[in-house]
Structure formats: C-alpha cells, structure tokens
Specification:
By secondary structure, this protein is α+β, with helices and mostly antiparallel strands. It has 3 helices and 10 strands.
Length: 167
C-alpha cells in the first residue's frame, strides 16, 4: 500500500513501493549539475545518504540542503540531494550557496525515485518528490528512513546524524 504525507495539512498519496529499514535499496539514476549521471542506492564502497526534496527553489528545501551541506562535513559518506529541478537550475543553486561537499541530482529524466516510494502522486506538487531521508549501508540495505510527514517541514537532522555516526 502506498504511503501518504501531508501538504499544509492535506493528505497526499505517494507513488511507488514503501521502502523500509532492512530492505535492499533500489539503484536509481539521477542527473548531476554537470549533466553526468550517478547511480544512487545499491551496494557501494561508502555509506550513502540520499535526501529527496520537492524543489530547491523553495525556502524549506533551500534551508535543508544548505544544512546538510554543513552537517555532513567530517563524515565519510556519499551524499546526494535529489529533486525534480533541472540540472541547470540545480547548478545555479549550488553556485549561489557554495554547495560543494554534497552532490545535487535531478530525477527529471528517469523518475527513478518512484522506486523509493517518494514520488508525489496527486495534488499541487504531483510529479515532484516528497521530503525524505534514506541512509544506505555499504551492502546496499536501507539502514535508516525518515519520510517527513508534512512536506513543508524540515527533517529531524539530529536523528539522521545519530544514525550516520553508527554506520
């Protein structure tokens, strides 16, 4: 059954399977700001932090991305923030806010994050990504999932960082 979140208190259904802790993290392809492609999920030589946001061109997503850029310094982790924004807009965003320590990816081409169950399926933001955070261990298993219940709110950063410290 599809999961739901809210947008300003209104229930919104998400498209795709519900991926939970212990599940294999599906491999998804995103487009980076230089138009190269990056696979996220699956087994890798580093722990992965996958963050999905509706659009970098909103205050909450902007704040969240800037915070994660600062908070993950010192962690040996592969971080990717994913939205449906075009790579050109993402590049301008990164340049404007000196986002250099994390990757910013777009799911506009493949819509692969539906595999994570975070594609918004209805309402004003239909087709964008819900706000969520996944930590994927080196073996490709989901070690952490935070599906932010209200799209307009930031995630619990402390909870994410505590889990990262254990990975």
């Amino acid at each position: 059954m599809a999961e739901t979140v809210t947008l300003k208190g209104n229930t919104v259904t998400l498209v795709g399977p519900s991926i939970n802790v212990g599940d294999s993290a599906p491999v998804a392809k995103v487009v980076l700001t230089d138009l190269s492609e990056k696979d996220i999920g699956g087994a890798k030589d580093k722990v992965q932090l996958i963050i999905t946001v509706p659009s970098l061109d909103t205050p909450v997503c902007e704040t969240e991305t800037k915070k994660f850029n600062e908070l993950v310094k010192g962690f040996d982790v592969d971080v990717t923030v994913v939205s449906m924004d075009l790579p050109f807009a993402e590049k301008r965003f990164c340049e404007s806010f000196s986002i250099e320590d994390i990757d910013i990816g777009s799911d506009f081409r493949y819509k692969d994050l539906e595999k994570y169950g975070v594609l918004i399926g209805e309402g004003a933001l239909k087709g964008l990504l819900a706000r969520a955070v996944f930590i994927v261990d080196k073996e490709g298993k989901v070690a952490y999932k935070q599906l932010v219940p209200e799209i307009t709110q930031e995630p619990d950063y402390d909870d994410v960082l505590e889990t990262l410290k254990k990975c």
